[in-house]
Amino acid sequence: MTDLPRLEVDPSSSTPPFEQLRGQVVAHVEAGRLAPGDKLPPIRGLAADLGLAAGTVARAYRELEADGVVVTRRRAGTVVADSAVAVTTRVRRAADDLAAVAREAGLDDAAVVEMVRAALRSR
């Protein structure tokens, strides 16, 4: 098990804190800084460290679990899932496909990003 990379929240960001946390964990998994089996901090502890409500961290963990990035096990806590790398690889491929289709259609970056944000909000 590796040391957990630092997680931070930018209170001035327009991105909600739970989404900042979720994105950082995914990025750490994709970069190999978090590996399958690595344990994330307990919700209350991370919330206290970051000055957030426990519900905010819990939401980030629920989103990560729904995406297959982490699993929560009794007694073991929340750990990076064995399938996490496969999930992030699928998402990266989908993003690459989206970029190719968007370029073929002549869409600019801002339009594509807004479409993705709208899709995430509707989820």
UniProtKB/TrEMBL annotation:
The keyword Transcription regulation applies. CDD domains: WHTH_GntR. SUPFAM superfamilies: Winged helix' DNA-binding domain. It comes from the Bacteria. Residues 15-83 form the HTH gntR-type domain. Keywords: DNA-binding, Transcription, Transcription regulation. Pfam families: GntR. GO terms for molecular function: DNA binding; DNA-binding transcription factor activity. The keyword Ligase does not apply. InterPro entries: Tscrpt_reg_HTH_GntR (IPR000524), WH-like_DNA-bd_sf (IPR036388), WH_DNA-bd_sf (IPR036390). PANTHER family: HTH-TYPE TRANSCRIPTIONAL REPRESSOR YTRA. This is HTH-type transcriptional repressor YtrA. It comes from Luteimicrobium xylanilyticum.
